[in-house]
Amino acid sequence: MIYIPKAEYTRRRKALMAQMEPNSIAILPAAAVAIRNRDVEHVYRQDSDFQYLSGFPEPEAVIVLMPGRQHGEYVLFCRERNVERELWDGLRAGTEGAIRDFGADDAFPITDIDDILPGLIEGRDRVYSAMGSNAEFDRHLMEWINVIRSKAHLGAQPPNEFVALDHLLHDMRLYKSAAELKVMREAARISCAAHVKAMQASRAGLHEFSLEAELDYEFRKGGAKMPAYGSIVAAGRNSCILHYQQNDALLKDGDLVLIDAGCEIDCYASDITRTWPVNGKFSPEQKAIYEIVLASQEAAFAEIAPDKHWNQAHEATVQVITAGLVKLGLLQGDVDELIASEAYKAFYMHRAGHWLGMDVHDVGEYKVGGEWRVLEVGMALTVEPGIYISPDNQNVAKKWRGIGVRIEDDVVVTKQGCEILTGGVPKTVADIEALMAAAR
Ligand code: GLY
Ligand code: MN
Ligand code: MN
């Protein structure tokens, strides 16, 4: 398996602390365990910010960073070892493991946090936290602050400033390191294999979930703990539902199937969409729509490079899709006017992509000072244009209705332009038909 190395977590903590104001403290909680039903838990997924700074995979933990502190800048509160609980739920790092394996300078039992943390906060001017994203933790934080305030008459100094940590941390997360790209390439590689498998397995008479099973098998076999988001397997008219997740309809001869799915490796997402004919052969209408979406994606790739801004790729897809729809007679009028009036949105109603990283819709600002962000080396994003012709669209001939096509790849900005991470799954009509024919 490919993981983020321990040294990188150290580097990230140091980089964050270097940006924090003097005499400040940052406090971040681990993700809570989510209950699925009664006493059954969801598979645990660490909070992305917490993971980014620690690699520590357990719940009930709190990271404390105190730049410049002589007795250690990185303190981790975590669960203690417990023979009885570990017999039922699995091993815990414990405070010793937190220091030995996860690089903490000091570690304390999470049960002692109310006694210890106010003392660590006391005397620091500023507290950095993800305010507003975890109501329960915000409440705890205020309790700890109030403990200090209650001792003010004894000379205790509560902090005066509370700062949102997101701004610093999320900007760091936007730029992917070499180690992060290695993990993202691995997630992409496994997800490509999964899409190929699903293409090969595609047959009329199966169900959408039959193809989802092929994806899950490849994800898990590749070492992914789970998909990066709920897989979308949408056949026929379901392909026009953008976030379709029912995945239980029949695959019918003559229909397209749209699959939007990617796995997660070491908390890094991949996000791929391919659309193909259930029976392995595109109809003329399906092909016509498909070729426009593919051309628009190619046009978008050409607009991804350092010094181009975030929206240029989107604008390129809008241009190609609108012109293509006019050419097919699905839109009537002047291309520029149809773009200005946003008439294309009846068919292409989402944006061409989003940042990609630990979260599938990753953190990072899209605008800076009111202007679209300029792309820089190391930023990772998706490119995912689509055309969706509603089954109920009375303005177009019947033969077009219910066709939905999206093509989505993951890229990272390089010095020269961009590297496509998800090139391992066929995309042209000819390549898809050839792959499917060979599997019959
Ligand atoms: N799978 C979610 C997206 O493509 O944005
Ligand atoms: Mn996406
Ligand atoms: Mn997607």
Automatic annotation (TrEMBL):
GO molecular function terms attached to this record: manganese ion binding; metalloaminopeptidase activity
Entry GO terms, CC: cytosol
Entry keyword Ribonucleoprotein: no
Top-level EC class as recorded in UniProt: hydrolase
EC number(s) reported in the record: 3.4.11.9
Cofactor: Mn(2+)
Superkingdom to which the source organism belongs: Bacteria
Catalysed reactions, semicolon-separated: Release of any N-terminal amino acid, including proline, that is linked to proline, even from a dipeptide or tripeptide
Alphabetized UniProt keyword annotations: Aminopeptidase, Hydrolase, Manganese, Metal-binding, Metalloprotease, Protease
One GO-annotated biological process of the protein: proteolysis
Domain Aminopeptidase P N-terminal span(s) in chain numbering: 4-138
UniProt similarity note: Belongs to the peptidase M24B family.
Protein name per the record: Xaa-Pro aminopeptidase
Organism from which the protein derives: Pseudomonas fluorescens (strain SBW25)
